[in-house]
């Protein structure tokens, strides 16, 4: 606390988490009990109960804490008022009470406050700590479960839903645990009170108890309502978070397609639906809070309990825990003994499999093959033929209905879409293995990463963000090792990595690149899930197999396999080369990366024996010699054990690498500014409604205080009336003495009769109920409106922020603000702030205006300690908040890596499981959770310290007030009672108000964090001013002109594109080639202004930097490198603005040959899974082509768009582009040179500069040109074919004089 008072607290100041609170230990405990519960439920044939598992795990320690609460509620809270009652009798001068009794009762009142400190705070700390352990263990269990989910189950849930489960749902444990014990304490306390009341007032007490009993069914019903509403809220929050996750991940595509508005509408509609349910909850809460003010203490506890203990957290979580896991892989025979390298093998016999039992068609039917050590099996086939599914079956991801797969050795796998984790390039290549300089160097060389490492700003210590953001697609793939990179690198990887480095392994390569088939030992041709042919290349060629028509999807799988393989290799044990048996399956860029992984692994003793290493298991399934995709590297990186906020020492290098993906999270310092509070309330409805709320609060508080005052006034009147009756002998008792009542006596002057008092009291109570109800409803309406406004402002800021923000901030960090922070603003902040507003007004009006006057009337000297108490409280609050605020902010920041890690793990799940790295990832998750737990535990400790200090001060104050009355002359008992109870209330309200105001400030850090994200500088305007706006038909020609254009992503880094000047004519077809990292994709970035370039770019003579972003982006079609689909219908994916008719949509699908597939799925209303994973990568690419056909802009950009499709589909796409986009300017970034050999001109980029720009035939005529060397590297047969294509295109252009000529630059 002293440190926090001096300076801001940061992560380095946090204590290491206690061993008993460690995520791994708690997770293991709960996992054991949950496994037992699952076993029992199977034996007894009942549903598994998550509550039972929790009770068995943590029940006893939680029950023990409840005894403290029972002592506080049943002894102290009842004993203290009793002592006060006896003290009042003493002051009233009743018979039998002496001065000693007075001192004893005074001491009793004081002891009640003293003992309260020793019961209340240990209870609260114990129960909150218990809630924390429930949350930690549940999160750990959820993460472990997520690593075991089957592919089918993954299709039914979403990353957003799981993030919400971890961020919002399990946090109910932190709050619900506090009130759990009151379920049994409430009835016990009621019985004790009933006994005391019976003793005091006899059977009349039953009326009060009856009222209480009438509240029980009402509260029970209310509890059920809250339960249903909480469940409804959770479902709606899941949906909103899912949408947010999809939007954040696909932000680049959304910006290029100009889809910001429909997605903003989608997010706002989801938010509105969620807040509608929360507001309904708040109406019931308003009724509850009004009853809270007007009913007894016990009813309050029952009410709070039923509200909080809805059990819905457990329900939501149980549903997730019961989802199907990856099915038993007993159809895969694996030996636990590692075979010698030469004995490794992979065989499949009659494998039949399908993804879902609900479909009739099998994904694979009767597939058989065998691969031995040293052999390479190439798998080819059209898009959707089952190549990826075959790899998944080998990995155990796709359950086999029949047949067997025999694996001897370990499997390495490179996925079709490269997967990289946050960390350095080196960490991604090592994938958790120790650094061995020699092996590392060989691996980097084999994966063609040497040049890349030189070009990266910090070499292989360059940080790559989540999803591999700072690497190009090809670099990611190479880090993951796939053959999906440019032709030069592709050939290098195939020759040096697959054929040389891994030559002793069992290798399975799924590829679309036909030039490598002749090197394969066997080729497996798949069509519609069946083996169409299998055998060596020559045999298949002689039998008349047309590879061009067959190989549609092979390429992608090969790549996948490769990249996985390398990863796996890395992860294998260090002493033996075990890379042998992993499946490399990676599509695009995976190749080089994977290679790196593989080699490294091999070297390190992974499954691949790169040299003739010691016992290595040699099954290497390589999937996907192809053009690189970008997910492999990112996936590896994201899943890396190094992700997080700690410093990681890289061996053999003295520079510690700060391992955060992207920039550190934004964080404010110091107190929460008053402007934040003002913006929060004004966002909820402006000044008028805010002033009305203040007025209603004042009225309600005056009524609340007046009722207490009226009770004292009424009891004093009755006491004086009784004294008059007893003391006045002249007054005659008439009538029946047996029926005599004091109410028959005269009313003392200045007082009212009993009936009038009852009416006034009842009226005031009714008015209090109604006023408090109105102010509560208005207050919650303001809060909900504010919540909606804050969310919408933050979302609008996020969707308009430049794309660089998403490259440097992990998904988890952004989602944290949209889940936990908004969750706090929605549900916790309003109730806490309501307490503060109530308490502060009570303090101002009731205490300083009422209590001080009452106390001063009895003893004027008591004003001194009262004022002193106020001053100390205010100072203490200031001292406490210095540390508490920082701890709370740290708690928010340390939460983000937990979500990021979950999101990353789900993206790379297949890779993680292929390399058997689940334990490593669980350890990483536990370390992220432990860091968060240390911040949360410190937060609990600081709040308790503050509470204890306040209670000690209150106890001293009550002692002074109570004992001071013993020295006073006789006073009316009502005044004494009011003075002491007011003093107790004053100190209680003082400390409650101070504590809650501190808690509000802590929770306002969430508002502050949301406002931080709402204040980002947006991109350029979406639309240009009216006078600068282009004509409706612009661009009508498609002429693109660059003048001295440079592009740099960061001011402190060198430009990635340097001083480019060129002109592309109308309708020209331009091919863009260059080594990976040459700047090809950056050229597209500049054209779409995703990052603002310097220099000038003109389209049809108009400087695009002067136009709005939508003016530019909306008039350029793109088929992106990573095909992106969204959850929702196929229609929404093609046409989110509903601008096209059904006929147009079907026609576009027919032109890309997807009509049949979409019809089989259910037509345009067919639901897409998250990320479109129910389509193959090639099919997703075709959907993107259909989008481009629908838009039919004058300029079309293909960013390596055919990297994931087989040559036949590639040809289909090229043919479609030639016919549908004949009158358009087309820019094609290609990894396959076949794609661009018939272009009008080819642009060759190297290290960000334009080296060559001319017709392919002219460039090929110069044997010193870079382009000539690129063609040469494809192999002799391929080179000859490429020359023929270029020559043919040249002759065709010469004949057609109207077409664009083969002009020089």
Automatic annotation (TrEMBL):
Pfam families: ABC_membrane, ABC_tran. Signal peptide: none annotated. It is found in: Membrane. GO terms for cellular component: membrane. The keyword Magnesium does not apply. The keyword Endoplasmic reticulum does not apply. Residues 75-316, 691-1002 form the ABC transmembrane type-1 domain. PROSITE patterns: ABC_TM1F, ABC_TRANSPORTER_1, ABC_TRANSPORTER_2. The chain crosses the membrane at residues 103-125, 179-198, 204-222, 298-316, 677-704, 758-784, 836-856, 862-880, 945-968. SUPFAM superfamilies: ABC transporter transmembrane region, P-loop containing nucleoside triphosphate hydrolases. It is a multi-pass membrane protein. SMART domains: AAA. Residues 346-553, 1040-1272 form the ABC transporter domain. Keywords: ATP-binding, Membrane, Nucleotide-binding, Repeat, Transmembrane, Transmembrane helix, Transport. GO terms for molecular function: ABC-type transporter activity; ATP binding; ATP hydrolysis activity. Belongs to the ABC transporter superfamily. ABCC family. Conjugate transporter (TC 3.A.1.208) subfamily. This is Multidrug resistance-associated protein 4. The gene is CFTR.
């Amino acid at each position: 606390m002293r440190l926090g008072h001096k300076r801001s607290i940061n992560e380095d100041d946090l204590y290491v988490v206690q061993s008993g609170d460690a995520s791994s230990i708690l997770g293991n405990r709960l996992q054991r009990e949950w496994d037992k519960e699952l076993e029992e439920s199977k034996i007894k044939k009942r549903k598994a109960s998550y509550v039972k598992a929790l009770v068995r795990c943590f029940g006893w320690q939680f029950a023990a804490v409840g005894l403290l609460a029972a002592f506080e509620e049943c002894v102290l809270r009842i004993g203290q008022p009793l002592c006060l009652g006896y003290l009042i009798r003493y002051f009233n001068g009743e018979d039998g009470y002496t001065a000693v009794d007075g001192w004893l009762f005074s001491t009793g009142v004081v002891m009640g406050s003293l003992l309260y400190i020793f019961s209340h705070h240990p209870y609260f700390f114990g129960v909150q700590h218990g809630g924390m352990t429930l949350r930690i263990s549940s999160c750990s269990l959820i993460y472990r479960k997520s690593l075991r989910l089957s592919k089918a189950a993954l299709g039914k849930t979403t990353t957003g839903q799981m993030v919400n489960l971890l961020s919002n749902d399990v946090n109910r444990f932190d709050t619900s645990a506090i009130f759990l014990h009151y379920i049994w304490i409430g009835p016990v306390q009621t019985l004790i009170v009933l006994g005391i009341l019976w003793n005091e007032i006899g059977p009349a007490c039953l009326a009060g108890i009856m009222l209480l009993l009438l509240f029980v069914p009402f509260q029970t019903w209310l509890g059920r309502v809250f339960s249903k509403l909480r469940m409804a809220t959770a479902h709606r929050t899941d949906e909103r978070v899912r949408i947010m996750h999809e939007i954040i991940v696909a932000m680049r595509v959304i910006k290029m397609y100009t889809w910001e508005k429909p997605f903003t509408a989608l997010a706002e509609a989801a938010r509105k639906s969620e807040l509608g349910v929360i507001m309904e909850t708040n109406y019931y809460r308003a009724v509850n809070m009004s009853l809270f003010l007007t009913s007894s203490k016990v009813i309050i506890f029952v009410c709070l309990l039923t509200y909080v203990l809805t059990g819905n957290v457990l329900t939501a979580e149980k549903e997730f825990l019961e989802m199907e896991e990856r099915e038993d892989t007993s159809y895969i025979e694996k030996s636990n003994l590692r075979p010698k390298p030469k004995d490794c093998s992979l065989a499949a016999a009659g494998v039949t499999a399908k993804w879902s039992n609900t479909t009739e068609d099998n994904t694979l039917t009767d597939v058989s093959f065998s691969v031995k050590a040293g052999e390479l099996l190439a798998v080819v086939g059209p898009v959707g033929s089952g190549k990826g599914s075959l790899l998944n079956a080998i990995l155990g991801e796709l359950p086999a209905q029949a047949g067997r797969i025999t694996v001897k050795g370990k499997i390495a796998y490179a996925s079709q879409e490269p997967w990289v984790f946050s960390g350095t390039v080196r960490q991604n290549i090592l994938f958790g293995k120790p650094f061995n300089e020699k092996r590392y160097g060989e691996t980097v060389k084999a994966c063609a990463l040497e040049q890349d490492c030189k070009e990266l700003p910090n070499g292989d210590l360059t940080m790559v963000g989540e999803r591999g953001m700072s690497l190009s697609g090809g670099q990611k793939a190479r880090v993951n090792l796939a053959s999906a990179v440019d032709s030069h690198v592709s050939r290098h990887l195939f020759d040096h990595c697959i054929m040389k480095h891994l030559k002793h392994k069992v290798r399975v390569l799924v590829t679309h690149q036909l030039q490598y088939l002749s090197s394969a030992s066997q080729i497996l041709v798949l069509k519609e899930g069946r083996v169409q042919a299998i055998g060596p290349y020559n045999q298949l060629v002689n039998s008349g197999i047309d590879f061009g028509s067959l190989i549609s999807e092979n390429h992608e799988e090969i790549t996948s396999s490769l990249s996985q393989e390398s990863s796996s290799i890395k992860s294998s044990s260090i002493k033996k080369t075990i890379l042998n048996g992993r499946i490399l399956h990676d599509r695009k860029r995976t190749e080089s990366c994977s290679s790196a992984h593989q080699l490294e692994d091999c070297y390190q003793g992974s499954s691949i024996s790169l040299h003739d290493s010691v016992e290595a298991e040699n099954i290497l399934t390589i999937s996907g010699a192809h053009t690189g995709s970008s997910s492999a590297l990112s996936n590896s990186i994201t899943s890396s054990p190094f992700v997080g906020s700690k410093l990681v020492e890289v061996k053999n290098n003295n520079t510690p690498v700060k391992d955060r993906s992207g920039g550190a999270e934004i964080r404010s310092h110091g107190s929460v500014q008053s402007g934040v509070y003002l913006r929060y309330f004004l966002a909820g409805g402006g000044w008028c409604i805010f002033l009305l709320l203040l007025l209603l609060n004042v009225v309600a508080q005056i009524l609340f205080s007046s009722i207490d005052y009226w009770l004292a006034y009424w009891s004093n009147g009755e006491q004086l009336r009784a004294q008059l009756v007893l003391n006045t002998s002249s007054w005659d008792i008439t009538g029946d003495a047996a029926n005599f009542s004091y109410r028959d006596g005269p009313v003392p002057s200045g007082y009212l009769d009993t009936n009038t008092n009852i009416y006034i009291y009842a009226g005031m109570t009714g008015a209090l109920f109604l006023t408090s109800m109105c102010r509560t409803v208005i207050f919650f309406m303001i809060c909900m409106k504010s919540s909606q406004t804050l969310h919408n402002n933050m979302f609008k800021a996020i969707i308009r922020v430049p794309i660089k923000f998403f490259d440097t901030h992990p998904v988890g960090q952004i989602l944290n603000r949209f889940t936990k922070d908004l969750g706090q603003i929605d549900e916790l902040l309003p109730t806490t702030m309501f307490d503060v507003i109530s308490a502060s007004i009570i303090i101002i009006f009731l205490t300083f205006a009422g209590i001080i006057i009452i106390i001063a009337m009895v003893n004027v000297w008591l004003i001194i300690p009262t004022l002193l108490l106020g001053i100390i409280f205010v100072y203490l609050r200031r001292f406490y908040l210095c540390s508490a605020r920082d701890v709370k902010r740290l708690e928010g920041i340390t939460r983000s890596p937990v979500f990021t890690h979950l999101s990353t793990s789900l993206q790379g799940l297949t890779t993680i499981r292929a390399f058997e790295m689940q334990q490593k990832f669980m350890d990483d998750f536990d370390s992220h959770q432990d860091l968060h737990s240390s911040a949360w535990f410190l937060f609990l400790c600081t709040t308790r310290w503050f509470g204890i200090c306040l209670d000690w001060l209150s106890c001293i104050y009550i002692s002074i007030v109570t004992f001071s009355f013993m020295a006073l002359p006789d006073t009316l008992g009502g005044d004494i009672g009011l003075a002491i109870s007011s003093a107790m209330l004053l100190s209680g309200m003082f400390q409650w108000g101070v504590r809650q105001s501190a808690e509000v400030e802590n929770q306002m850090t969430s508002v502050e964090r949301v406002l931080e994200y709402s204040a980002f500088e947006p991109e350029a305007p979406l639309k240009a001013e009216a006078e600068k706006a282009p004509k409706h038909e612009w661009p009508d020609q498609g002429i693109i002109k660059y003048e001295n254009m440079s592009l740099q992503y960061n001011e402190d880094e060198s430009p990635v594109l340097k001083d480019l000047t060129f002109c592309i004519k109308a309708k020209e077809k331009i091919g863009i080639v260059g080594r990976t990292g040459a700047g090809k994709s950056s050229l597209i970035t500049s054209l779409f202004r995703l990052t603002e370039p310097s220099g000038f770019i003109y389209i049809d003579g108009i400087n695009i930097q002067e136009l709005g972003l939508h003016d530019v982006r909306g008039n350029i079609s793109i088929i992106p490198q990573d095909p992106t689909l969204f959850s929702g219908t196929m229609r929404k994916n093609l046409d989110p603005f509903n601008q096209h008719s059904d006929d147009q949509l079907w026609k576009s699908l027919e032109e890309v040959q997807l009509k049949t597939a979409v019809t089989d799925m259910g037509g345009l209303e067919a639901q897409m899974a998250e990320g479109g994973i129910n389509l193959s990568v090639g099919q997703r690419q075709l959907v993107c082509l259909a989008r481009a056909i629908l838009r039919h802009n004058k300029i079309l950009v293909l960013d390596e768009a055919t990297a994931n499709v087989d040559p036949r589909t590639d040809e289909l796409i090229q043919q479609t582009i030639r016919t549908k986009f004949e009158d358009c300017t087309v820019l094609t970034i290609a990894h396959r040179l076949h794609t661009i050999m018939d272009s009008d001109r080819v642009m060759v980029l190297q290290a960000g500069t334009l080296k060559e720009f001319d017709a392919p035939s002219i460039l090929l005529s110069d044997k010193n040109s870079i382009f000539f060397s690129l063609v040469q590297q494809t192999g002799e047969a391929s080179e000859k074919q490429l020359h023929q294509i270029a020559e043919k295109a040249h002759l065709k252009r010469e004949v057609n004089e109207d077409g664009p000529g083969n002009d020089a630059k």
